Each structure stands twice: as C-alpha cells, then as structure tokens.
Amino acid sequence: MMKSDGSKSLPDLIGRPSWFGSAAGISLISASAGYGASSALSMLTGFGPWITSTPLSLPLMSAGIFLSASIGVAAYHLGRRREPMATELLRAINTPAVSLYYQPIVDLNSGARVGAEALIRWEREGKFESPERFILAAETAGVVTRVTQRVLQMAADDAAFVTHCDHGARPQHLSINISVQDLQSTEIISELRKLMVKTNLPASCFWIEITERALLEGATTSEVLAAIRALGMKVALDDFGTGYSCLSVLTEFKFDILKIDRVFVSQIETGSTLMIEHIIKLGQSLGLEFVAEGVETTAQRDFLRDMGVRYAQGWLYSRPLPVMSYISERGKYYAPAVNCTQYQAGRLGGAA
C-alpha cells in the first residue's frame, strides 16, 4: 500500500521481507563497515524471491540482519588491528603498560651484583610484546627517539634505587640502550645531561649501549659517541660480532666495554670456543672491559672467568626484574668464586 507521498507503509514493507532484510542489513553494514561488508550481504539477499516463498522467510530475514551486523563488527575490529604498531606504542608510552625491567650484571670473581641493564617492556593485549619487534616498528616509523626519551625518564625515576650500594661502596652502574636514530642527532646529549641532573649521580654510573648497526648509519655517530664519553659516561658496544664489520668499528670508534653476544656464549657448551676466544683476546689488546650476555650455566661462567671476562648477565643469575623486585634482591650474591670474604665484608668497589 502506498502513502499519498509515494512512500510505502509498514504493512507493505513487512509483506516484502527480502527487501526489508536487504535494506536494513545494507544500511546497518554501510554505517559500520563500508562497501566490502555490504557486498557480502548483497550475496545473501540475492536469494530474495526464494526466501519469500518459503515458511522460513522471517527466520532467514533475521539471520540476514544478524549476519550483516556481525560482519560490520568484525570489519570494525579489523580496521582497529591494522593501526600501526608504532602508533599504539606512542599512545601507551606514558602509561603503566610500558615499563622498565632490570637484569643484574654480576662480577664473575665475586658473584656480587655491580649493576643492571634497563630493558623496556610493553604489555600489550594481556602479554608482553617482543622488544625487537616494537623497537623496529618505532625505528621504521621514525619515532624511536621518543621511546628513548621515555626510557631515560623512567630510568631517572628508578636510578637512585637501582644504583644504590650498601656499606658505603660506590654506586652500581645502570646500563641504558639507545637507538640508531638517537646517534644521528646531538639531541641525545641534552637528554643524557637531563638524566644526570635529575639523578644527581656521577656520569660514570651510566653505561650507554649501542649496536654495530648504529655505527654504520648517520654522519654524526662518531661526534655523538665522543660527546657521550666527554660527559664521563661509558660506551658499550652491544651484539659485538653479529653485525656488519666488527673489526673495523673497534678501530674507528672509541668504546669502553664490549658486550659478548649470547650466540657466542652458548657455543661454550659445545666446545666451539674459537670465536669467543678471538673476541676476548682482541678486546683485551684494546684495553676493553667485557660483559658476557646470556650466561645460563656454571660451565659458561667458569670459562668466561678463566678467560679474564669480568662481568656477566643471564638467567644463571637472574631474569630481568621489575624495579621493586630488583630492589628487594639488592645485595644478593651468586655463588662467589674465590677469595670473596672481602666482598661480603662490604669492600666491594663497584663497577670500575
């Protein structure tokens, strides 16, 4: 039945269930998901003449409306999931979802903690996202310097607790990673100065970690590294031997510490020690200190100590810990090796 203005009455609409289901469904989908979902619904409602001729017309019509709404909701959430990871990270960066964990660095001779590496963690959708993945996403999007700024702010808040050492010994050190893009501008120097002012700690308490990849990108790298060392902070080369040109970077740039990658440490168990012995001897010839990463067994610990490596970190000692857990275990010793009475008596010199 037609109204005087040419529109159809409600009874007339009800008499055409396939038209009603199609119109309502397409309208709902168009509002929530767009053309793609509408097209899917059109395939279903194309069977209109058959649907209206069966006793199941009303249930099928309802199913069509339900399906259209479901597709719309699914398309909406798919759209949200396609949001760049870097965008999500920046939105979360100042919330409790992003925090720092601290992995102890241990003196192999005494078994005592002498410092910690600050490691960023992001709890996303109920689980921790891979740092390698989200840092790479931030680098690709060109926003990783904002992540570094936040890391330095959180490290400054925790530094007094993490670096505290009992018995009047020198403060322990705090190791902080910076990115490739941080080294492409002198802005990082201003951020590190802020860190020193806020913590009121000696510059020597801070170790700044960089990777080999960072050394090959950006013309200002050498200048920035020199400025960091001029502040009095130590510079550590991370992932040594796994990158591009490990020998050339040691002669071209100035470092204080060499971090031995877990890849080489794990080979100790198999007896394949030629590479790690070469790295250690090379570093010793240049007067560098060492931190071995990924130490998980006493055999690895003993080999490294016998080779003259002073520091280590890994699950043999501790996993990375949230700051309160790290503080609660401060002063812990890990199976001191030999002649450690002087250390336990409170004369540990810290991370010289």
From TrEMBL:
SMART domains the UniProt entry points to: EAL
GO molecular-function terms, A-Z: cyclic-guanylate-specific phosphodiesterase activity
Residue ranges of the TM segments: 20-44, 56-76
Keywords, in A-Z order: Membrane, Plasmid, Transmembrane, Transmembrane helix
Residue ranges occupied by any EAL domain in the UniProt entry: 82-334
SUPFAM superfamilies for this protein: EAL domain-like (SSF141868)
Superkingdom in the source lineage: Bacteria
PANTHER family per the UniProt record, alphabetical: CYCLIC DI-GMP PHOSPHODIESTERASE PDED-RELATED, CYCLIC DI-GMP PHOSPHODIESTERASE PDEF
Record protein name field: EAL domain-containing protein
Organism field: Acidovorax carolinensis
